[in-house]
Design a protein that fits this description.
Length: about 290
């Protein structure tokens, strides 16, 4: 499903660059991240594509059911952890919904007359969003691989064609990205840029501790087998969250006192060492108590 978002006041929306995503807060309180797949030059609208997952965590189903003309959503300004960097040539590798951040990158490369190729895989052609549009734009520069027709692409062969001054951008399911990362390590890891929509589950277990929520003065015990987020939700304390696996940054909290045991993949190693913030969905306390600005 394609969703078009506009300002309720009719104002220009914040600027963005290819690879950016927005954070959408649904009526239920769920927070989800969606890659922008429109044209950055269009300041009056954001465009996203949302695949309905019947057995997911509920966010896509909720958006499908409530989206329509006049529906109101809270949206945070775009962020970009997958920026398109200058290169002499691009190879874009997309799997499934991983095509969404790639679409605007391809348009940008085309506008700049920079050579590019796309290798795009999916379960079947009917599940491959933007396929016809991309074929129309790129012709034989676009290689589609539906599992039920063409099978899986030879990613090693595709990556071997990239010149030393080219870059590879990859987004898709974890097994595909793990394969791409392994191939890149054998060749030139500096050429690879990856966007992961999910990561392997993080171990949240550890010694029990207490967390004080400074804004209310409430102290919450956190058991050895639960996260701070889970402990808060179990007591009806609302807070923003999304991935629940430490990679999206939605639940980031400022640490006022104590030492966090950082287990996320969102913060840099320097940020983790500073201990100024933490992700409460996976990270714990290195001591008996933490004080958070919540």
């Amino acid at each position: 499903m394609a969703v078009q978002l506009e300002s309720m006041a009719g104002l220009d929306l914040p600027q963005w660059e290819p690879g950016a995503f927005i954070e959408v807060k649904l009526p239920s309180g769920r927070v989800r991240h969606y890659s922008l797949c429109g044209d950055p030059r269009e300041r009056d609208v954001y465009r996203i594509a949302v695949l309905r997952e019947e057995h997911g965590r509920g966010g896509s189903k909720e958006l499908h059911e409530m989206a329509g003309a006049g529906a109101v959503l809270e949206v945070r300004p775009p962020r970009n952890n997958f920026a398109l960097e200058p290169a002499a040539e691009y190879l874009f590798l997309a799997g499934g919904v991983g095509i969404t951040p790639i679409v605007s990158m391809i348009r940008r490369a085309e506008q700049a007359a920079i050579p590019w190729r796309l290798v795009y895989g999916g379960r079947s052609r009917s599940w491959m969003a933007f396929a016809d549009e991309l074929l129309s734009l790129g012709g034989d520069r676009v290689a589609l691989f539906a599992d039920d027709v063409e099978g899986r692409p030879d990613l090693a062969a595709e990556m071997a064609k990239v010149p030393p001054d080219g870059l590879v951008y990859a987004c898709g399911p974890a097994p595909m990205l793990d394969l791409v990362a392994g191939l890149s390590a054998l060749r030139n890891a500096a050429q690879l840029r990856i966007e992961r929509f999910s990561v392997a589950a993080v171990d949240i277990q550890g010694a029990p501790f207490h967390v004080e929520l400074a804004r209310t003065g409430v102290t919450v015990p956190v058991a050895s087998n639960e996260s701070i987020l889970q402990a808060m939700r179990a007591r009806g304390i609302p807070t923003s969250f999304s991935c629940e696996n430490g990679y999206c940054g939605t639940c980031e909290a400022v640490v006022l006192d104590g030492e966090p045991d950082q287990r996320d993949t969102y913060l840099t190693e320097e940020e983790k060492s500073d201990g100024f913030t933490m992700m409460i969905c996976v990270s714990r306390s290195a001591g008996p108590k933490l004080v958070l600005d919540l």
